[in-house]
Amino acid sequence: MFNLKKIKQNAPAVPILVWTGILVGIPLIYVVVLSFLSRDSLGNIVFEFTWENYKRIFDPVYLKVFYNSFLLAVLTGLITLLIGYPVAYFTANLEANRRSLAMGLIILPFWISSLLRVYGWIILLGNNGLINSLLLKFKIIDKPLTMMYNFGTVLVGTAYMLIPFMIVALYNSIDKLDRSLLEASYDLGASKWKTFFKITLPLTMPGIAGGFTLVFIPALGLFFISDLLGGGKNIFLGNLINAQIKGRNRPLAAAFSVGMIILVLLVLYIYTRITKNKKEGLFL
Amino acid sequence: MISTKIKKILVLTFCAVFFVFAFVGCGGKDNGNKQINLMTWGGDFIPREIINQFEEETGIKVNYKEVTSNEEMQSLLEANPDQYDLAVVTDYMVDILRQNGYLEKLDKGKIPNFANINPVYQGNYYDENDEYSIPYAVSISFLLVNPEGVAALGADPITSYKDLWQEELKDSIVLIDWSVEVIGLVLKSLGYEYNETDPVKVAEAKEKLFELKDNIVRFETNTPEDSLISGEAVAGFMYSNQAVKGQAADPKLQPVFPEEGMPIYIDCFVMSKDAPNKDNAYQFLNFLLEPEISAKISELTNFSNANKAAEEFLPEDFKNNPMLNFPDEVIKNTSFYIGVAEVYEEYEHIYSEFKMQF
Question: Does residue A278 form part of some domain?
Answer without folding.
Answer: yes
